[in-house]
Structure formats: C-alpha cells, structure tokens
UniProtKB/TrEMBL annotation:
Pfam families per UniProt: Methyltransf_11 (PF08241)
Record-annotated membrane-spanning stretches: none
Domain Methyltransferase type: 47-134
PANTHER family from the UniProt entry: METHYLTRANSF_11 DOMAIN-CONTAINING PROTEIN (PTHR44942), METHYLTRANSFERASE TYPE 11 DOMAIN-CONTAINING PROTEIN (PTHR44942:SF4)
Lineage: Bacteria, Pseudomonadati, Pseudomonadota, Alphaproteobacteria, Rhodospirillales
Keywords: Methyltransferase, Transferase
GO terms assigned for molecular function: S-adenosylmethionine-dependent methyltransferase activity
Keyword Methyltransferase: yes
Top-level taxon of origin: Bacteria
Swiss-Prot/TrEMBL GO biological process terms: methylation
Name of the molecule in the record: SAM-dependent methyltransferase
InterPro entries (UniProt xref): Diverse_substrate_MTase, Methyltransf_11, SAM-dependent_MTases_sf
Family membership: Belongs to the methyltransferase superfamily.
Length: 257
C-alpha cells in the first residue's frame, strides 16, 4: 500500500515537530481502552499507523502487550527515541506483519483516514481474534471556538486531496464484513502549553502543511504568528488551552460460523 504523498513528505519532514506539537489524549480515553476495548494484562494490541508514538504510551498504560506498525521511516526513528522499549515494525494497513487471529485489538489514532480501504479492512479483520476490537481515535480541533476556526481557515486551502478525519470519507468502509457496527464516544479535551507549541508546532505538523515548499510553509507560519499576536484570547499569553473533541470509535470481530 503506497503512503499518500502528503503523509510521506509531510510526516518525514516534520517528525520532530509532530512529537512536540501534537496533543496528548484525555484521561477518559484510558478508561475507554480498558473498559470498552477490554485491554489489560494478557491482552495483545498493535498501534497501527503509530507515528511518533503519541498514542502508544496510552496503550502501554493498560498493561497489555503492545507493538507498533508505521510505514514512514522518519516517524519510526522518532518513535524509538520516545518509546525505546516498544517494538515498532515497518508495515502498513494492507500488510500488517502479524499472523491470522493473533491480536486482541488493533488501534489507529489520528491515522485511519490515511488507509481507509477495503483491503485494509480485510487485513485488520484477518489479524484480530474473534471478539477482538478495532479502535479508531481522533483528536478533532473544536472549530466552534473563533480563533480555532481562524487557524483552520489558514490551512484548509492547502489540504488538496489529503484524506482528513473531518471529511468523513473513512466512514464509507463501515459497516464492514465480519465486524460489528461502529459505536462512538466523544470526550472533551484541551492541549495546554505555549502558543508556539500548541498552535505553531501543531499546525506545522499537519501533513499537507509539512509537505509544502519552505517559502509557502513560512507564509503559513507567519499568518499563525500574526493571529497569535493580534487575537484577544491569544496575544501576550504565555500559556493557552487549545480545545479538542476526542472521538473514539469501536467495532468487534464477529465469531465465525
């Protein structure tokens, strides 16, 4: 499965920025992993499309046996700096390097929209045990806040054909053969830190922004910094809270007859 050009170029160029700027996840997601996905000791899970490991630590916190799969080499290198004790394998959603019916869960955080294909669904279903869960998680920017909407207005003209969670194209793969219907839970979340970290680094780590040529990427950064300097909620603030909605979806592999 080829990696989308925006993901390959953008994530390769901005792997370190991705690690700095991407938000963590709310504590409620830990309870979702244990209670809704059934993760815990003696359970096995992979983080598919693990990136730099922003979500992998949450999986490890359940006590489950965790591995990661990531196709972009630069992201794997960043991952090993952050989580040296978690094995990370080269692979993708259409070629998952695990045997049939070997996993209790497959989790994709900030990733599934990149590989939402029929072939990927078949492969994910293949590696899950009967009763095993597929979990999909996204931190979605809360554009109901005016300055967050202004940030989105700055970057949206650049998105081109890049898959995005907000577009909803990924939902076309559901319902999927051999899997139960999706259920959804939503949690409110904030990413606190300096405007440089939670706005500038966060947006420069967006795939299609990271893939821009340097002069155009510099224009985006300048517009973000202008917004920070002039918006009443952001100007002269050493720390801000970037609001998110964390959307978590689950389906389960049905028993074979």
């Amino acid at each position: 499965m080829p990696v989308h050009h925006s993901a390959q170029a953008g994530f390769a160029a901005q792997a370190a920025t991705y690690e700095r700027g991407r938000p963590d996840y709310p504590q409620a997601i830990q309870e979702w992993l244990t209670g809704h996905l059934g993760l815990g000791p003696n359970r096995s899970v992979i983080d598919l499309g693990a990136g730099t490991g922003k979500f992998t630590g949450r999986l490890a916190g359940t006590g489950a046996t965790v591995s990661a799969v990531e196709p972009v080499a630069e992201m794997r290198r960043q991952f090993t700096k952050v989580l040296p004790d978690v094995p990370i394998l080269e692979g993708n959603a259409e070629a998952i390097p695990f045997p049939d019916a070997s996993l209790d869960a497959v989790v994709c955080a900030q990733a599934f929209h990149w590989f939402a294909t029929k072939a990927a669904m078949v492969e994910i279903t293949r590696v899950l045990k009967p009763g095993g869960a597929l979990g999909l998680v996204w931190n979605a920017r809360d554009v109901g806040v005016d300055w967050v909407a202004a940030v989105s207005d700055i970057i949206t003209p650049y998105e081109g054909d890049a898959p995005r969670f907000a577009k909803g194209d990924w939902k076309r793969q559901f319902p999927a053969d051999g899997l139960s219907p999706l259920d959804e839970q939503t949690f409110l979340h904030e990413h606190r830190g300096s405007p440089d970290r939670v706005i500038v680094d966060r947006i420069l780590s967006v795939s299609f922004i990271g893939a821009l040529e340097a002069p155009e990427r510099d224009k985006v950064e300048a517009r973000l910094r202008h917004l920070i300097a002039t918006h009443p909620a952001l100007a002269n603030q050493p720390e801000i809270a970037f609001p998110y909605r964390t959307c978590a979806y689950r389906c389960v592999k049905l028993p074979t007859e």
